[in-house]
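QA checklist item 7 of 12: single-chain prediction sanity check.
[x] sequence parsed
[x] length recorded as 292
[x] structure emitted
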Amino acid sequence: MRIAIYGREFSDDFIPYFQLLIDELDRNEVDYFIYSKFHKNLKSKGITFGQKVKEYTRATYPKLKLDFLFSIGGDGTILDTITSIKKGIPVVGVNSGRLGFLSNTAKTDIKKVIHQLMNKEYRIEERAMLNLETKSKLFGKYNFALNELTVHKKDSSSMITIHVFVNGIFLNSYWADGVIIATPTGSTAYSLSCGGPILMPNSNNFVITPIAPHNLNIRPMVVPDDSVIELKVEGREQKFLATLDSRSEEISVDNLLVVTKSDLNINLVQFPNQDFFKTIRNKLLWGADKRN
């Protein structure tokens, strides 16, 4: 088995768990590649590695033959991997803090997870992504997102007006701070905090969620993910922000934004004790009685 490991800074209380991960990989004679900047940080924390460890960079990553990518951190860390991930490589999200929606493998389960991977006791869950097209090629070749596209006002307290069309048919003009176009995965992120619904990962939908709309009767709208969603923006200012997951670019009002379902998807590894409903209950504390 060959895996790549990507991560960001984590607190010192996670060090024993990461060392356990490395020890289990070495014990099972797994070939593993660690992102170079992350590797340097790990060595400064006193993590020790066996003979199988190698480094990789964003330039060398596409050449690696891998079975899995381990993302160490939270949901934001998995989003960081989107622009570099090889098509089809399954992602194992190990959470170094609190439970995440995407990074939902607990640090206490690391040893069990390695055993399950070695014994093929897992399933692959495909997560759809969205694609953004603009005349200016705004995000270059990285014009896709796992969570959402957000169109937001910039440098002004004034609202913007976003005219939204679905399959060429006018839906609405949103007077708001912005609008979110979220995938099912993104429905539990920014969209949820703005009052959007939770979508099942395989529901084949997008949700259009306004951010602080002026008209209080405006509500989020669920549309099929084979729709073509067009957004045109007006406002007192000539510039606004367009964000794909955590990547933001300034864009002018004369740009038309066209959102479709991406040809790319992300494969997340799910283990026997994991399912979407369980993650929702744990993350959102459904059924928890905090009165006692």
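[x] summary fact logged: The two ends are 47 Å apart (CA to CA).
[ ] second reviewer sign-off
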